[in-house]
Amino acid sequence: MKVLDLTRVMAGPYCTMILGDLGADVIKIEREKTGDDTRSMGPFVNGESACFMMINRNKKSMTLDLKSEKGKNIFLELAKKADVIVENFRPGVVKKLGIDYETVKALNEGIIYCSISGYGQTGPYSNKGGYDIMAQGMSGLMSMTGEPNGHPVKVGISINDISAGVTAVYSIMAAFIQKLKSSRGQFIDVSLVESGLAWSVWESAGYFGEGIVPNRTGSRHRVSAPYQAYRTKGGYVLIGGANQRSWEKFCQKVVNRPEWIDDPKYKTPKDRIENVDDLERCIEEVLVKKTTQYWVDRLDDAGVPGGPIYTYDETLNDPHILERGMVQEFDHPVAGKLKTLGIPSKLSETPGKIRKPAPLLGQHTEEILREELLLSEEDIQQLLEENIISKEPLSIQK
């Protein structure tokens, strides 16, 4: 799969990173001189952005002035040979640049053209700029994240950006399967708001089913208890007593309180939810006497789902995470040897692979022009002199 990547920051680059991890040939087209906005975001390693390097591996970088006629024509020549184009400009920008879906489709009927935006390409909000936090707000996620009496809180990661990237990936895959059957491409419209909203399956089910509007519940589950973080001696432990069997094993084998099983306040899942405050108090009175690890071991021995709440340094050094290959290393030409997140999907026959580090700005511009468009050295030099392309600076730390 040949992919032209016009995206920047997170949602689009996350999509194209996954495609690259799984074997696609990804050409990242960046603004001349400055490149992707993420290149100027710290922390930096020898002048290279750690954030950029994390999300732009397995790609080539080409600089191109898309506002110029020559730059546009070079892009369209590349588009003739591409399978996929991914962009996340504000709606209408690619039309103004003359590189929109209809223009490319006239040159390449098989093109799969994916546009990622805050609110989508249609609708009354389509022209609004949309970042992850606005999408978290509008999709309802912030209204139910945080402690019951606290302020709305955004999810710790940019979850709508990431969900949009994942939505774009599976949409592109589906379109590519169709293309293999029919030779025809199609246009894909992905929004941050809808991608996050689509993940709120239980919450939307509650609203459609009984008109329930979910509120903030901290770490608690809405319909299961015990299912939350509980205070221990010096920390917290997560307990997932999501069904009656787990609850009874928890009472008998973990906290040694078999009398709770027949207590009218806790007898059924409905009873436990209705008395969740009292249940939390009773459980924590027991758990605060021992450490988190003690209770994790007890839960494991009893076969009750549970675990710790890690900080990221603990997560990224956990033996299970390491054994599963979720921390890998690569060599970067400027930053040197660096660690990065591994690939979460484990395919038995065609596993993903980190084939190359994130590119330097414009690192492959001349190579692409020579090999893909067969331009001469004189042509390339002319493009450099006219600032249609650039190859410096390769490191742009502010």
Automatic annotation (TrEMBL):
It comes from the Bacteria. The keyword Secreted does not apply. SUPFAM superfamilies: CoA-transferase family III (CaiB/BaiF) (SSF89796). InterPro entries: CoA-transferase_III_domain, CoA-Trfase_fam_III, CoA-Trfase_III_dom3_sf, CoA-Trfase_III_dom_1_sf. Pfam families: CoA_transf_3. One of its GO terms (molecular function) is CoA-transferase activity. Keywords: Transferase. This is CoA transferase. It comes from Peribacillus cavernae.
